[in-house]
UniProtKB/TrEMBL annotation:
Annotated InterPro entries: ATPase_NBD, Gcp-like_dom, T6A_TsaB
Family annotation (SUPFAM superfamilies): Actin-like ATPase domain (SSF53067)
GO BP term, example: tRNA threonylcarbamoyladenosine modification
Organism of origin: Sphingobacterium lactis
NCBIfam families assigned to the protein according to its UniProt record, in alphabetical order: T6A_YeaZ (TIGR03725)
Protein name (database record): tRNA threonylcarbamoyladenosine biosynthesis protein TsaB
Gene Ontology CC: one annotated term: cytosol
Location of the Gcp-like domain: 39-156
Amino acid sequence: MKSNTYILSIETATNLCTVSLANHGETLFSIVGEEPNLHATKLTVFVQEVVERAGLTFADLSAIAVSKGPGSYTGLRIGVSTAKGLCYALDIPLIANNSLEALVAGYMEKSDRDLDGEVLLCPMIDARRREVYTALFDAHGRELSETHALIVDETTFDSYLEQGKQLILFGSGADKFAETFAHIPAITVVPAFESLASHQDRMAYAKFQAAAFEDVAYFEPFYLKDFVATTPKKSPLL
C-alpha cells in the first residue's frame, strides 16, 4: 500500500491549459500555460514536466483527476482523453470534478473575504457572447442550483438582490460583466480568476478516500452543449 497519495489533476475546461500534482490533497507543483489554447500541443508536456519536478515517476501516481465540464468542447475532450489514457496505461483510478465546483473550491481557499449567509457564490465559465456556464453556491460552498447555461443581463440577479443577498461572480465568464454590474454594490465581479488544476487537489483527495471513481471505459465529459437561446432574458438560478 502506498504511504503517499499522489494525484495528478488536469484542468482544460477553459482556454487555459493547467496541470497540478498533489500529495494527500496538498499541492506540490502546478503548471499553467502562459498562452491560451495550448491543450493539444502542451498538455502531455505539462503532465510529464510536473511529475519530473516532483522527483517522481508515473508509477508513483495513485490517481488522475480531471475537470469534467462544463466548458470548452475541445478543451474538455483533450483533457478527458489524456486523463483516461493515463489511467489505462497506469491502471489507476479516474476522478472527475465538476468545473464549477472546482472554481468555487479555489475561490474559497484563496479569498480573504468574510463569507456569511447573505453571500452567494456564482462561478462562471465563458461560453459565447453574454452566455456562461454557471451554478449558484452558498457561502459554505454548497450547490444551490444545477449547472446550466445562462445568458446574463443586468436584471439576471434582481430576485436575489431584492432578498438582500450579495453575489460574487468569478471565473473566465465573469470578467465580461464587470461593466454590466459596476453600478450594483451588492454584486462583486472578481477580475481574472482562472480555472486552475490546483483547485481540484483537495476535492480529488477527498474523492480518492471515498473511492468515488469513474468508469474509465465509459466516462465522457459534461459538455452541456444542448443549450440554445437567442435573446437575453431574466432567468433565476434557483
